[in-house]
Design a protein that fits this description.
The structure holds 2 protein chains of 2 kinds.
Chain A: E1 3-8, H1 14-27, E2 31-39, H2 55-59, H3 65-70, E3 87-96, H4 99-105, H5 111-114, E4 118-123, H6 126-134, E5 140-142, H7 155-164, E6 167-171, H8 179-196, E7 201-204, H9 216-224, H10 230-237, H11 239-252, E8 258-262, E9 278-282
Parallel strand pairs in A: 1-2, 2-3, 3-4, 4-5, 5-6, 6-7
Antiparallel strand pairs in A: 8-9
Chain B: E1 6-15, H1 26-50, E2 54-59, E3 64-70, H2 74-82, E4 86-87, E5 90-100, H3 103-119, H4 125-140
Antiparallel strand pairs in B: 1-3, 1-5, 2-3, 4-5
Helix pairs in contact in B: 1-2
Chain lengths: 283, 143
């Protein structure tokens, strides 16, 4: 299982999104998350409207996609015919500068935040960074890799974040843009790896277009140049991302264990009189 | 004295426009790849790679490419391939399919991949000939 937990979701039309997800499938990813980015405040418009793309639509995109969907491991080991399940998640990325607004903005009671699967924060100041690492109830802390970081990453808070189960994100698409962005990418990525000692790091694309994605093994190799070991690099695209998804589930569940799932009325229960509109599920 | 060890990378080129360009050869890819290594790792990095780095095979129909390089430097070479975005003014992406220690294992993977891709393609007569030639060339590759 390979995950790509950040595709830039703003200013993207349906065709571009379809192409991008199809390309991710073709390259061997099994789970993608599309990210909606906001600055400092949430308005009602920011509620999640993303719809997962159906497999049939994806398979029609081009050569390689249908085969990749059909086989377990992409084209080259085309032996098994087991269908691959593509998971599509939604994600909210909040860029924050003011520490004061953060807690209520990202609280579980906020219905807009709750409409997304994953929640990420991008700290723009030292204060917010501290707060995000030690207190905020988020899944991922992300950084703008294409620019110089506005503050120094200190190991203390970062390791506190890792200990809490909050993951740090490296987005590699900056390395594929221009030279300056690439320099900053290597600088920032190695700073993150160094400060966190390689623990608790996930790698995702942050791609705006289909051709800003890369295959999982290419990405692993790229981040080993930033100081991750090969095992850590592999975990950063698979294990760690699964933990992020689990963390998000737990964050959204009541007291971390109980989820409420609404069941459609015609779900197969016999007597319509006592059909429950919701049921409870232990996660 | 330990023998010199290589890595052989099997890479698929994915073109944005999906056009087949039969004029593209190993030498073109070699030059683009070297430019990218020089851009990312400078003259020193390129110099270290030069001794063993070579594009062994390219098939313009299935967009398959085999690159050999020294084992110490393969990470740099692969990263340079990853950061290539354009090639002759066309957007491209290089996708690693197999990373082997010998040419033979790559050859096997390449033959499988070629078959899988060619099955789904409709070729003209000239292209069929080209495909056969490419297949023969692949079979005849030697380190």
């Amino acid at each position: 299982m390979f995950y790509d937990l950040c595709l830039q979701g703003d200013d993207v039309d349906a065709f571009l999104q379809r192409d991008r997800v199809a390309m991710a499938v073709r390259l061997g990813f099994d789970c993608v998350a599309t990210s909606h980015a906001v600055n400092d405040r949430l308005v009602d418009r920011d509620r999640c409207t993303q719809q997962p793309i159906e497999a049939a639509t994806l398979a029609a995109v081009g050569p390689g996609v249908a085969e990749a969907l059909r086989s377990q491991q992409g084209l080259i080991r085309n032996g098994g015919a087991a269908p691959r399940q593509l998971a599509q998640l939604s994600r909210l990325t909040v860029a924050l500068e003011e520490a004061a607004a953060a807690a209520q903005l990202l609280g579980a009671s906020n219905p807009i935040t709750a409409s997304y699967d994953l929640l990420a924060v991008q700290p723009l100041s030292e204060r917010v960074f501290q707060q995000a690492c030690t207190a905020l109830d988020v899944d991922v802390i992300t950084f703008d890799m294409a620019r110089r970081l506005p503050f120094r990453l200190r190991p203390g808070p970062l390791q506190a974040a890792v200990a809490r189960g909050v993951h740090l994100e490296i987005c590699y698409s900056a390395a594929l843009r221009d030279e300056i962005a690439r320099r900053n990418f290597f600088s920032n990525a190695s700073a993150v790896v160094r400060a966190a000692r390689g623990h608790g790091i996930i790698v995702s694309s942050g791609a705006r277009a289909a051709f800003e994605l890369r295959g999982p093994y290419d990405v692993m190799n790229l981040v080993t140049l930033c100081g991750l070991t090969e095992q850590q690099a592999k975990a950063a695209l698979s294990e760690r991302c699964r933990q992020v998804a689990r963390h998000a589930e737990k964050r959204k569940a009541h007291k971390g264990v109980l989820t409420i799932v609404s069941v459609p009325a015609e779900a197969g229960l016999d007597s319509p009189s006592n059909v429950p509109s919701t049921c409870y599920m232990y996660t | 004295m330990v023998r010199f060890k290589n890595r052989v990378l099997l890479v698929e080129l994915i073109w944005k426009d999906g056009r087949i360009d039969e004029t593209l050869t190993e030498a073109n890819i070699q030059s683009v790849l070297r430019e990218s290594i020089a851009l990312n790792f400078g003259d020193y990095g390129l110099g270290i790679c030069l001794a063993s780095q070579q594009v062994k095979y390219y098939n313009p129909l299935t967009n398959l490419c085999i690159v050999r390089c020294g084992r110490e430097q393969y990470k740099g070479v692969l990263a340079s391939m990853t950061t290539i975005t354009t090639f002759r003014y066309r957007t491209v992406m290089m996708h690693l399919l197999h990373n082997g220690g010998t040419l033979a294992s790559c050859q096997r993977a390449a033959i499988d991949h070629n078959r899988a891709v060619l099955q789904n393609m409709r070729l003209t007569q000239a292209q069929q000939k080209l495909a056969n030639e490419a297949e023969e060339k692949l079979q005849a590759l030697e380190l």
